[in-house]
Each structure stands twice: as structure tokens, then as C-alpha cells.
Amino acid sequence: MTDDEPARIRAAGGVAWRPAATGVEVCLVHRPRYGDWSLPKGKLDPGEHPLRAAVREIAEETDVQAVPQVRLPTVHYRSEGRPKSVDHWSMRAVAAGGFQPDTEVDEVRWLPVDAAVRLVSYPHDAEVLAAFAALPPVTGTVLLVRHAHAGKRGTSTGRDTGRPLDEQGWAQAHALAELVALVRPVRLLSASARRCVQTLHPAAALLDLPIEVVGDFDEPAPGQQPEECALAGAARLAELGAAGDPVAVCSQGKVIPGMLERLTGRSDDFTTAKGGGWLLAFTGDRLLAADRLQGRAPC
């Protein structure tokens, strides 16, 4: 951005969908201010994570509680003279309240995808809907995170597996809990290292779920080959994805790239920052998409 370029507007929303007799229906909103039909979306609050903003905006505009599954295209255009980017996710509707029209949104419609494409007012919304329609059915989601900050190896006494989160790490863990809750997991699984288990503590308290320690997500032990760990971890992730219920998993930096390489069949950069992670969508035991969790919006 140049010095004279106005600040970019960041927004998020998505395609909320529900099963229907003839397939699926998606949710559109009518905005009286603009006289248009569009996908539900809205601006990020200061410091808000885009994924949380997408879930919040869909709930605020439609009274639909939705669970994110797959990242859809980000669209870019100008709004009121400023550049604007809107991140989208496919989201499964799990509950709906009693919608009340207001000055922002005065009507909500659930339509088959082809009817929704014809109704939306903007080509970029039609493109997002087309990307959604091209997806195979999502049967399971896994939120895979790397443990939060815990200092450096060798800075604590005792075995490295006992190294705890530091102050920065606990702040990251509390922030992660908000994202973990968005996918409504029924299970929380962790590698056996103390810092991994602690990373899920705030989410466990928020969701009232136990943390299950699973050795398949551990870094290689002395004498163990990294390939062996990557294969075991990838197999466990595929098993969890095929099971159908959303889950959250905390693993380690030396394991996550190898697991994702095997699940995707690609040698991309899957390096994951501490406290970062991926939203994984499965169709059966096959990985459909791996969405790197983005950072929060600037405060």
C-alpha cells in the first residue's frame, strides 16, 4: 500500500448451508441500504481473527449458528473508494434463531445453489458460490494446531517434554481457545509433551472437554525415524477426519509438516508457527483442504 492509498477494509463471511430434500440450500441476505442480495459478511473488529469474524457476522446477519469447514475464495474490490478484501468459508448451519429484520438486513432466503447464483447481485458472490458448489461433501473437520510458545529448548531443567508454556504461550493458548470453539469439537487430542497439553487447557475449560493424550502426534523419540512419526500422525488425522465429528488436535513443529505432506501428497511449506495451525476438511479419510489459520487483524 502506498502512502496515498487508503487503508484496506477487511471483512469476512461465507456460505452457510443446510441439507435439503434436493441437496443443499445456502443462505443469502437482502440489504435495504444497497437494495442487493449477497452472501452474509461484515467487517472485522479491531484485533479480530477473520475466522471468528466470519462466524460472528453470519450469526448477526442471519441468526444462523454455523461451523466453518472449508476456506473459499477471498474476493477483492473497492468499497466507498477503499480497497476491500472479504475472506469466505463454507459453513455448516447447526442452529437458527428467530430472524428479525432490521435496517442492515431485512430478509433472509435459503435457496438451492443454482438459484442463489442467479439471485446474488455481484459476480464475486457468484464466484464464491460456484467454488462452494464444486466441493465434494465435507464429512469431517480437524483443527490442527502447534503448541504455543514455551521458550527455547535447553532453557528449562529436566526433560524437554516437560517444558511448560511461558507467559506469551499462555496468551496464545487463550486466543486459540476462541478458534477451537468455532469448530465445535467433540474431542480434544494432544501430543504428550506438557506444552502441547497446556495449549489445549483453555479450550478444554471453555468447552468442558477432557484432553486425550495421543502419542501418534509426538515428535520422534531418540532412535525413531521422522518418517515413522509423520506416517503415524497422518494416519490418525485421516482416521479422525473419517469419523465425522469435528475434533481439535495439538501437535509439534517437527511433526506437523510431515503429516500434512503425506495427507496432501505435496511438498509445500507446511511450517507452522507456535500457536498457529490449520483447518483440515476431509471427505471420508481423504483430505479435501488444508487452510492455514491467518493472523488477527491489526489493532
From TrEMBL:
InterPro entries the record matches: His_Pase_superF_clade-1, His_PPase_superfam, NUDIX_hydrolase-like_dom_sf, NUDIX_hydrolase_CS, NUDIX_hydrolase_dom, Nudix_hydrolase_domain
Residue ranges of every copy of the Nudix hydrolase domain listed in the record: 7-133
Gene3D superfamilies given in the database record: Nucleoside Triphosphate Pyrophosphohydrolase, Phosphoglycerate mutase-like
UniProt keyword terms in alphabetical order: Hydrolase
Stored Pfam families: His_Phos_1, NUDIX
PANTHER family for the chain: BIS(5'-NUCLEOSYL)-TETRAPHOSPHATASE [ASYMMETRICAL], DIADENOSINE 5,5-P1,P4-TETRAPHOSPHATE PYROPHOSPHOHYDROLASE MUTT
Name listed for the protein in its UniProt record: NUDIX hydrolase
Organism this protein belongs to: Micromonospora solifontis
GO MF annotation list: hydrolase activity
